[in-house]
Amino acid sequence: MDINNIKTIAVIGAGDMGHGIAQLALMAGYKVYLRDISQKMIDKGVARINKSLEKLESKKKITKAGIKKINSDLLVPCINLAKAVSCADLVIEAIPEIMELKEETFKIMDDAAPEHTLFASNTSTMSISRIAMATRRPEKVFGLHYFNPAVIMKLVEVIRGEKTSDETLQIGYDFALKTKKIPVRVQKDIPGFIVNRIQAAGKVLLNSLLDKKIIAPGSTDAVFRKTGFPMGPFETMDYTGLDVNCHTHKYLAKSVHPDFKLGSFLTKKIKAGHLGKKTGKGIFDWSKGRPEIDLEKADNTFDPLDLVAVHVNEATKIIEAGACTIKDIDPAIQNGMGTPQGPVIRVQQIPPKDLVARLERLATQFNKEIFKPSPMIKRGEYILESPKNILVKTKEHIAVVTIDHPPANAWNLTTMIQFEKAMDLLEKNKKIRVILLTGAGGKCFSAGFDINDATNAESISSKGRILWQKIDRFTKPVIAVINGFAMGGGLELAMCCHFRIMSDHPKNKIGLTELNLGIIPGWGGTQNLARLVGKPMALDMILFGKRIDAKKALKIGLVNRIFPPETLMDEAMVFARNLALRPPLAVKAVLCAMEAGDYDGLKKGWEVEEQQSKITAQSADAREGFTAFIEKRPPIFKGEN
């Protein structure tokens, strides 16, 4: 059996999660039996599906004909549980998080469904293995955990029970792909799985901070919203339902550790019936729609890295338990919670001793054993092997440095650190005389700041200014081979290079477009563009965010040469080889003298020129140059004093 054998789906539960999962299956072309315990609940679920489909139709993501087909041919609402599953190839349970209710439901479904039918639970925390024991087919039972709202959130956790077969798990994975989701395998049935387990540990910290009145919900959420999160943690709790959070924490407190018990602040809200969005009031007031979070009231006393540390610590525990690998964590959190980054990437620059100290401080401050650093944290095994975003190839006296950070070769902190290290090594390498700098992929030289690394925005901005100046003052010729578009920080980097060679293709454009975002070039763009093309032209390009092609760039002096795309790199290499034949010490002297004039003024430039002139005149290269001239032969420069 494989995914092609799955034709009919039964979704048990038409509530928040069930109707969303049913809609995804319907949009994927499956026949869907949607079942709930009353006609009222069924009607409500169907109405919500149609309302969502109408929105998608207005955005041209589905046709009216497609909606008509769903309602007339594919969607079968029903109340009878046995009938709902009697023709199903795959059943997805989405009923309340009550283990006894799930066990009873799976037992009834097991008796009524065909022998080949697979059973999946959308449970967010509970044991798949225990649920499977209510059936006579545990090898065909697995977890298929969608996230709320199911139509929007990208992640699906595909969870293996103790007896789930490889075939069943693969079909579940493929079904998630069919519903256009991003599946992550959970290879061991642990409480909370990946996302909810990690988030629950973070909520323990947030509850502790609330109970001790260290933070306020609104000001804390403002901190997260300002760093790019679509929702803060407290608004998210309200959105999913405080009662749902309560069920999760009760289960984890019982099955994992008592520290997961819900705090007093949220317990009081639940007892008062304030469950969040569904009741119109929770942590925030939802009576007039989504609560307004005042970003100006962000509370700087709360350090978001404390929450990240707790998340990573809990992540290492589930990794050590064999549920997943460290590479699964960030994609799961990002796609399950809609966050700009996962926790693992955010701690890559934190040394193990500092992360251990932070966690020990939190464990002591709040008397929570679950905050104590895991063995994996203590061993520093959370630090990933950095992806090779900067590739260096050397041949004779030339190095080709390629920015390889798809899709746009943009600059995050990791890429910048690699670039700085590579350029430092090349500057010290006496054999290398010329550097060619280009972008991978053939369509892009480099974009600017990587918005996916928003949490490191301040560090990236600062490092970019320092690093781009370093290239501007580099002591060996650097040639930018602009093999595609170069915008913002990418063009600023190219302008710091000593030469620019560009591909003459109509789609290749370069420009400083920062003003379109309400900001200005911050890595030397205002200075270098004016220096290269003159102030009037620079103002015209920057203030209007103009993008120009290769011919225009050559005409105004922004690039030195242009070539057809198919010969660009070959021509650049010829140029580099000719430049590498020039006397290295004298080339360095010229670059140093010009740089001094640019940065420190004409007077300083003359002084440096005089100093460098004396140094080069006494070098072995100078003696070789004069000798070769007299002997009427080409000189062979070795870069020796």
Structural description of this entry:
By secondary structure, the chain is α/β, with parallel strands linked by helices. The strands form 3 sheets. An 8-stranded mixed beta sheet has the order 3-2-1-4-5-6-7-8. A 6-stranded mixed beta sheet has the order 9-10-11-13-15-17, with helices on both faces. It has a 3-stranded parallel beta sheet with strand order 12-14-16, with helices on one face.
Percent of residues in helices? 40-55%
Alpha-beta content class: alpha/beta
Q: Number of DSSP strands?
A: 17
Identify the overall geometry. Answer: elongated
Q: Hey, roughly how much beta strand do the residues contain?
A: 5-15%
> Compute the gyration radius: what is it?
31 Å
Widest sheet, order of strands: 3-2-1-4-5-6-7-8
> Any low-confidence stretches, pLDDT <50, length ≥5?
none
Mean pLDDT: 92
The first-to-last residue Cα distance is 75 Å
Describe the structure concisely:
The relative contact order is 0.05. Helix content is 49%, strand content 12%.
Notable traits:
641 residues, 27 helices, 6-stranded mixed β-sheet, alpha/beta, 8-stranded mixed β-sheet
Protein topology:
Blueprint (H helix, E strand, L loop, with lengths): L7 E5 L3 H12 L3 E5 L3 H20 L5 H11 E4 L2 H6 L3 E4 L5 H14 L5 E4 L6 H5 L8 E6 L8 E6 L5 H13 L3 E5 L8 H17 L5 H10 L6 H8 L1 H14 L8 H8 L32 H17 L5 H12 L5 H4 L5 H15 L8 H4 L11 E6 L2 E6 L9 H16 L5 E6 L4 E3 L10 H16 L5 E5 L2 E3 L1 H8 L2 E5 L6 E2 L13 H9 L1 H9 L6 H6 L5 E3 L4 H13 L3 H17 L1 H16 L2 H12 L10
Parallel strand pairs: 1-2, 1-4, 2-3, 4-5, 5-6, 7-8, 10-11, 11-13, 12-14, 13-15, 14-16, 15-17
Antiparallel strand pairs: 6-7, 9-10
Helix pairs in contact: 1-2, 8-13, 13-16, 18-19, 19-20, 20-21, 21-22, 25-26
